[in-house]
Amino acid sequence: MKKIIALLLATCLVFALCACGSTAPAAAPAPAATPAASSDSSSAPAPAPEVQKFTVGICQLVQHPALDSATQGFIDALSEELGDAVEFDNQNASGDIPTCATICNGFVSSKVDLILANATPALQAAAAATDSIPVLGTSITEYGVALELSDFNGTVGGNVSGTSDLAPLDQQAQMIIDLFPAAKTVAILYCSAEANSVYQADVVEAYLEGKGLSVERFTFADSNDVAIVTQTACGEADVLYIPTDNVAASCAEAIGNVAEPADIPIITGEVNVCKVCGVATLSIDYYNLGLTTGKMAAKILKGEANVAEMPIEYFENPVKMFNEELAAKYGVDIPSDFVAIED
């Protein structure tokens, strides 16, 4: 019995010693450390590309419907092409030619990206102000005359291009003969300070004299002289002809207020003047002319065209139009290919 007890004690002692010599269980391995964020910028989202912004300066000689329409067409076309990427600085010289120079010089100082020059004096001022900023003209009759280019061949070159509002002058002159066959003397009424008005007067005078009519010119220097000059012209002529002249356009109502009581009909160079005081016209659409100019500007600003290589663009399909009220007043038989001017 003693041997059994001794054997049991020995066995317990062995187990106790084994327990004391065993090590503590190993701790669970620590989770792997999260790698530090990489400083490599390629792992970050790429920033959105910066949209290029453009500023376009608009110098309009005077406010009247034809020029207003051309400016609006230009803005609409360029806004459609470039959206919010284009900003307009639209300024009006209120008929004062020296103010055109002030406006255009301001655009140059502001470093605009492109200048729209609406009407001949505005184009002349813009061309004198810069030879590096692209300049587009609109409502310009003849660029060679406006810029005194002896070798003009349809492309101005340098930093100037644009659109022309020239309608076939021989066809306008022929309207006088066709609609007023009894007329013997025609008075051409225009502003002497507008080079393109002088050009139109030269062409129309030569055509009418070639057809056997007598032609007299009556010019005013500015709007202050319009009424008195018109009165004198009405006393000397059977019909008045007004070319696309900005001073005359801005004073169309004053001209009509003199010519109508004198019973002297008028043929005009554009529809907005005809709407106020004329019987008939062969006219372009100035809003569409502005649209064409705006599309030219978009090509320049987007780098798709070089202004120096862009030919002057012309309105291709002028329309014969007539003023129903004044045609009836003068008893004019209007041919079927004329379109009535809408109010």
Explained architecture:
- Helices cover 42% and strands 18% of the residues.
- It has 13 helices and 13 strands.
- The chain is of the alpha/beta class and 343 residues long.
- Mean pLDDT is 90; it is low at 1-39.
- The termini are far apart.
- The chain has two domains: 54-165 and 285-311, 3-Layer(aba) Sandwich (Rossmann fold); 169-283 and 319-340, Response regulator (Rossmann fold, 3-Layer(aba) Sandwich).
- The strands form two sheets. It has a seven-stranded mixed β-sheet with strand order 7-6-8-9-10-12-13, sandwiched between helices. It has a six-stranded parallel β-sheet with strand order 2-1-3-4-5-11, with helices on both faces.
Features:
13 helices, seven-stranded mixed beta sheet, Rossmann fold, 13 strands, 18% strand, 343 residues, single chain
SS elements, strand count: 13
Strand order of the largest sheet: 7-6-8-9-10-12-13
Secondary structural class: alpha/beta
C-alpha Rg (nearest Å): 39 Å
Tally of separate domains: 2
What multimeric state do the chains show?
A: single chain
Known CATH architecture of the largest domain: 3-Layer(aba) Sandwich
Biggest pleated-sheet summary: 7 strands, mixed
Please state the average pLDDT score.
Answer: 90
Q: What is the tally of helical segments?
A: 13
Distance between the termini: 138 Å
CATH superfamily of the largest domain: Response regulator
Would you tell me which CATH topology of the largest domain applies?
Answer: Rossmann fold
Note the run of SSEs as H and E: HEHEHEHEHEHEHEHEHHEHEHEEHE
Uncertain segments: 1-39
